[in-house]
């Protein structure tokens, strides 16, 4: 009898605890959705503002909300949700990166591919080694905790990751098309390279570094890079083949849209399952899907997928900055670094300086090397453009925070003094760089490149190296009916297209890839319809 009473009381207590927990979750979600709506409305109202954009607006709203929650909870908490690197990497980042690949203007991306790869991969490696070596030399003398060589190298990877999301909102593809294309492409490759570097560092004993360890590290890095790209291309081609062969849209357009979304997400999760780079995988999956799969679906599905992917990416971006702003004031993260605020400020200042130096260490030298391969001044990256490229890539964002949490915390918290200082310093650098550098980028562009708007008012050619990388219409490859102004610097190239890589790719694409996987020019048909290739010609003439 006593046991029965005890069991019933325990059940009531558990039920009450669960209902309280559920109510708190509902309140948190309501507040967060309301804040998202506020970010969207304010972003619209500030669209023409020269200082603010939606990323910075969401960050400011997040910080203000965190302050309000801190005051109402008497300093116990500053957020309604806890930042988790799993939430970031599994749910928020995939739609952002996939949409970047899906909306990319492929001709310009691959025409500038060598420069983008030079900045994104080689440049990130230079920045990584610059920041890592400087961190080892400086922080090892500051007595900030039990940090080893592996931690210092991880710092190099963490602060080499630019914030491509905020960069996209700061730069304008109509005003500065070439800079937009270069910084955007570099940002995506940079994020992927930084994450691959970070993951590769976890697999080695870096306390005993020798030639073999370095060679194995580079080999592992190349393996992750190539394997991730291959998996993304394979996933995109598989989706194109399935939708082309089955022509799912003849029964339900909802199914083909759902299949595209799920296969894109599956490619990312497969990469994570296989310990590859999900960022690279889903980015190249997006490129391949826009080149083949998107053309295989019905017209209504094309409109739906384009806007659906863009909307999901937009919501994830806004959610992300709101999330970071609120989480930055979490009292738990600052508690273990509060006994030495001067040292924490010093570390943050040093890291910010290393970010500036690390980016300058590759932007200006690699721009010089890139200019050596250009034949005309119009193709070269001018000094003022180099300064803008350097400045626009100084912002650090959620990738850096997520990697720092992964390295220096357990379940979002740490009680180690050195780790706590690195977490708070990362948050400080992210907030300061996003707010200051993000707000100053537009005025800087207008000061250094005052003629950028008039220079880009002419119709841009799809052959031009300075054309925007992104386009609002995915089928832009077909848009040749619009009058195009051919740049004089490429006339010799255009008169002999047989010598270009693009020419041979088009031949291979038309001869082998498109007949198998569909793509531009593919017309879906319903069996028995006039477009059915199996219908006899006599029947077609009678229809």
Automatic annotation (TrEMBL):
One of its GO terms (cellular component) is plasma membrane. Residues 33-445 form the Cation/H+ exchanger transmembrane domain. Its main location: membrane. Keywords: Antiport, Ion transport, Membrane, Potassium, Potassium transport, Sodium, Sodium transport, Transmembrane, Transmembrane helix, Transport. One of its GO terms (molecular function) is potassium:proton antiporter activity. It is found in: Membrane. The keyword DNA repair does not apply. One of its GO terms (biological process) is regulation of intracellular pH. It is a multi-pass membrane protein. It catalyses: K(+)(in) + H(+)(out) = K(+)(out) + H(+)(in); Na(+)(in) + H(+)(out) = Na(+)(out) + H(+)(in). The chain crosses the membrane at residues 26-46, 58-75, 87-104, 116-140, 152-171, 178-201, 221-243, 277-295, 307-325, 345-366, 387-408, 420-439. Belongs to the monovalent cation:proton antiporter 1 (CPA1) transporter (TC 2.A.36) family. This is Sodium/hydrogen exchanger. It comes from Lolium multiflorum.
């Amino acid at each position: 009898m006593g046991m029965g009473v005890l069991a019933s009381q325990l059940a009531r207590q558990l039920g009450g605890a669960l209902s309280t927990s559920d109510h708190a979750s509902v309140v948190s979600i309501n507040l967060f959705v309301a804040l998202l709506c506020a970010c969207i409305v304010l972003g619209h109202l500030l669209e023409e503002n020269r200082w603010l954009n939606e990323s910075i607006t969401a960050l400011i709203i997040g910080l203000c909300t965190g302050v309000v929650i801190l005051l109402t909870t008497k300093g116990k908490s500053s957020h309604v949700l806890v930042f988790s690197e799993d939430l970031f990497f599994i749910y928020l980042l995939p739609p952002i990166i996939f949409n970047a690949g899906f909306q990319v203007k492929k001709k310009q991306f691959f025409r500038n591919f060598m420069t983008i790869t030079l900045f994104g991969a080689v440049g990130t490696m230079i920045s990584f080694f610059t920041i890592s070596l400087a961190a080892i030399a400086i922080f090892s003398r500051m007595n900030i905790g039990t940090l080893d060589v592996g931690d210092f190298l991880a710092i190099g990877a963490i602060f080499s990751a630019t914030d491509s999301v905020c960069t996209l909102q700061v730069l304008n593809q109509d005003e500065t098309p070439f800079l937009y294309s270069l910084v955007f492409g570099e940002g995506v490759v940079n994020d992927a390279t930084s994450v691959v570097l970070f993951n590769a560092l976890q697999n080695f004993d870096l306390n005993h570094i020798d030639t073999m360890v370095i060679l194995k590290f580079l080999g592992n890095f190349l393996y992750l890079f190539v394997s991730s790209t291959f998996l993304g291309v394979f996933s995109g081609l598989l989706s194109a083949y399935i939708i082309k062969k089955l022509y799912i849209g003849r029964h339900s357009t909802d199914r083909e849209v759902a299949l595209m979304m799920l296969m894109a997400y599956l490619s990312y999760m497969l990469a994570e399952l296989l310990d590859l780079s999900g960022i690279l995988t889903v980015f190249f999956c997006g490129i391949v899907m826009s080149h083949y799969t998107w053309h295989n679906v019905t017209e209504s599905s094309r409109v739906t997928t384009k806007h659906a992917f863009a909307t999901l990416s937009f919501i994830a971006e806004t959610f992300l900055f709101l999330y970071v702003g609120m989480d930055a004031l979490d009292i738990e993260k600052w508690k273990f670094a509060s006994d030495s605020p001067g040292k924490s400020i010093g570390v943050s200042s040093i890291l910010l300086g290393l970010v500036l130096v690390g980016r300058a260490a590759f932007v200006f030298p690699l721009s010089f090397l890139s200019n050596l391969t250009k034949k005309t001044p119009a193709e070269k990256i001018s000094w003022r453009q180099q300064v803008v490229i350097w400045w626009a890539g100084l912002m650090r964002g959620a990738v850096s925070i997520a990697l720092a949490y992964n390295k220096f915390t357990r379940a979002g918290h740490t009680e180690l003094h050195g780790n706590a200082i690195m977490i708070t310093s990362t948050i400080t650098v992210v907030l300061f760089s996003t707010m200051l550098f993000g707000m100053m980028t537009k005025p800087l562009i207008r000061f250094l490149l005052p003629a950028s708007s008039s220079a880009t008012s002419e119709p841009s050619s799809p052959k031009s190296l300075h054309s925007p990388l992104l386009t609002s219409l995915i089928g832009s490859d077909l848009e040749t009916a619009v009058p195009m102004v051919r740049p004089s610097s490429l006339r010799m190239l255009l008169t002999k297209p047989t010598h270009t890589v693009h020419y041979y790719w088009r031949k291979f694409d038309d001869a082998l890839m498109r007949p198998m996987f569909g793509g531009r020019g593919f017309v879906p048909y319903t069996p028995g319809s006039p477009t059915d290739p199996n219908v006899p010609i006599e029947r077609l003439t009678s229809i």
